[in-house]
Write a structure and sequence with these properties.
- The chain folds into 2 domains: 173 residues, no CATH class; 81 residues, Immunoglobulin-like (Sandwich), CATH 2.60.40.1930.
- The protein is an all-beta fold.
């Protein structure tokens, strides 16, 4: 199954001066790839359309930027995992400690076969959202099999590779391009499902209506795809009207909270004037 996406992620690290396209694993002619982990500092993970830091929330897709290739590469048993840490780099290699331990991560993607035939952003839709805390750093693991002999990039100690035939880890001073989408596919256990909330019409033109099964004292927050808050409306009761006539056409996200900051509902709404 091939997954090539010509669009760019909402957030990530993509800077020609400090990052580079993936050669591992997509155009992997120099090194035998089985497993790698990369550490991204939260301050580096910003909106692709600007410099706004990625907010805390649920990651629903991740993107790897594949390097130009002259042939189709088929990856087998592709597994992607994520975790977070307060560490800013991996441990350094030493003569007495030639292997750097991998972080224990949560599996978010698993597919038997994955083919890449064109360069650019490769999209991976996660099997379950990953709860991201923007006060911590993010560790990405990509594997095609179980790695064993490991090495790290001593230049910045933020890339840890499993099973390389180049023990020097000659990958330069940069870190791979990486992106992700934040969504409102919030896991069930994060939402208080005792209050049913309906948002309509969707698409909307000049206003959005909220109807709840029980009275709410709280607010509805609407953000754009970059996580920027566009409007906030107070809710007192079972009904609420949100004016949207001044908002540009496009897709937005909404979250409904009560005054105790408990999430009651989340989803998408489209504005089409």
């Amino acid at each position: 199954m091939a997954q090539h996406n010509t669009s760019t992620p909402q957030y990530g690290m993509y800077d020609a001066a400090h990052s580079f396209e993936y050669k591992v694993p997509f155009n992997n002619t120099d090194n035998l790839f089985e497993r790698m982990q990369l550490l991204y500092r939260s301050a580096e993970l910003v909106s692709m359309s600007g410099s706004t830091k990625a907010p805390s929330g649920n990651i629903t897709k991740v993107y790897l930027h594949a390097k130009a290739t002259a042939k189709v590469y088929t990856l087998t048993d592709v597994i992607i995992k994520l975790t977070q840490t307060t560490d800013t780099c991996f441990a350094a290699l030493t003569p007495t400690s030639p292997d750097v331990p991998f972080y224990t991560c949560t599996e978010v993607f698993n597919q038997k076969s994955y083919s890449v035939s064109t360069p650019g952003w490769i999209e991976f839709t996660l099997s379950k959202p990953f709860k991201y805390d923007n006060t911590k750093n993010l560790v990405l693991e990509v594997s095609g099999d179980n790695g064993f002999n490991t090495t790290t990039n001593n230049a910045n100690k933020r890339a840890n590779y499993g099973r390389l035939n180049d023990a020097n880890g000659a990958f330069g001073f940069s870190i791979h391009d990486f992106g992700f989408d934040m969504g409102n596919a919030t896991s069930v256990n994060e939402i208080d499902a005792t209050t049913a909330v309906e948002i309509y019409p969707n698409p909307a033109t000049d206003q959005v209506r909220l109807a709840a099964s029980k009275a709410i004292s709280g607010s509805i927050i609407i953000t754009d795809i970059n996580g920027k808050t566009i409007t906030t409306e107070k809710i007192n009761g079972t009904q609420c009207i949100i004016p949207v006539s001044g908002m540009a056409n496009g897709m937005y996200f909404y979250k409904v909270f009560n005054n105790e900051n408990i999430l009651l509902s989340a989803g998408k709404v489209t504005i089409a004037h």
